[in-house]
Amino acid sequence: MFLVSMCMIVAAFLLIEIIQFMLYRTWGDGQLHLINLADNTLAFVIGLAAMDALLYWNNNERNKRNETRAIIRYNRIVQPTIDLYLARKNMVVTPASKKVRKFQVLTVTDVRDMRDMYSASDLIADAAVPRIDAFRTYEVRLNDAMMKMAEDIDFIHHPELCDAVMRFINAATYGASALDAVVGYGTGGIRTGRTTIIRMMKDESEDGTMAAAAPELKNVYLVQQMIHEQEKSLRDYLVAMKEINGEDPDRTVRTQEYE
Fold it and tell me: pLDDT at position 253, please?
């Protein structure tokens, strides 16, 4: 853009000089002519550079504003799914003897706290399906929503939100097989395996690790690790969205408070 503009200026200058010579048969005073040429050229260059800088800034601001509004538009789908995910996630990591804090984002739990994940969900909408089954349903839905968001938005101006989205997707990808295996223990054909897993979780020590766990229990550790990674990514996502909502004057203010 800058080079094209400069070429147009030089061409216009040469055209004017040729017309002047054809009319007056003189190029004028050489020294004065060069001084005026230098002054005019400098003025053109400064003005053109300022216009290009202003145009770049305007385009950058417009692109940022469009990206912000696209993110807020997608968040109207993602954030309700986060609420549904959190309610099911917290049922999985909370024993039946304790109260479920449905909108708690970060939890400090161990494998033993997941021992009641095969019991029926407390939520009427889940139609009494096992907690772990309900969790997988909404974990998959949230992952799909995050992937759609990552595919359709470039996140040039909001890299911190992109990082949170990608970390959730990565955790879901790495933990998918383990989650399927853990859910599989709850099916009718292998209820003996489910009973074994529940007993192992109850007997697991507080400082147990996946490396020292029995083979049947390793998938539960992987699911727990996936959940903790997703919790951290959602925390960062919600923090980033709170800042982004402030960038758009037409935003819809959320009233849901997370723990």
Answer: 44
Exposure b/e, 93-106, CB count within 10 A at least 16 = b: bbeeeeebebebbe
Q: How confident is the model at residue 255 (pLDDT cuts 50, 70, 90)?
A: very low
Q: What is the pTM of this model?
A: 0.76
Which one, of 137, 144, 96, 99, lies nearest residue 116 by Cα?
96
State the average pLDDT over residues 109-127: 90
Q: What is the DSSP string of the chain?
A: -HHHHHHHHHHHHHHHHHHHHHHHS----HHHHHHHHHHHHHHHHHHHHHHHHHHHHHHHHHHHHHHHHHHHHHHHHHHHHHHHHHHHHHHHTS-TTS---TT--S----GGGGTTTTSBPS-GGGTT-BHHHHHHHHHHHHHHHHHHHHHH---SS-HHHHHHHHHHHHHHHHHHHHHHHHHHTTSGGGHHHHHHHHHHHHHS-TT--TTTS-HHHHHHHHHHHHHHHHHHHHHHHHHHHHHHHTT-TTPPPP-----
Query: For position 248, what pLDDT does the model report?
Result: 56
Q: Are the CB atoms for 110 and 227 separated by under 8 Å? A: no
Predicted local confidence at residue 221, as pLDDT: 93
pLDDT, residue 43, reads 67
Tokens read off for 112: 């033993």
d(CA 92, CA 191): 18
The answer on pLDDT for 209 being more than 60 is: yes
Give yes or no for residue 252 having a pLDDT over 60.
no
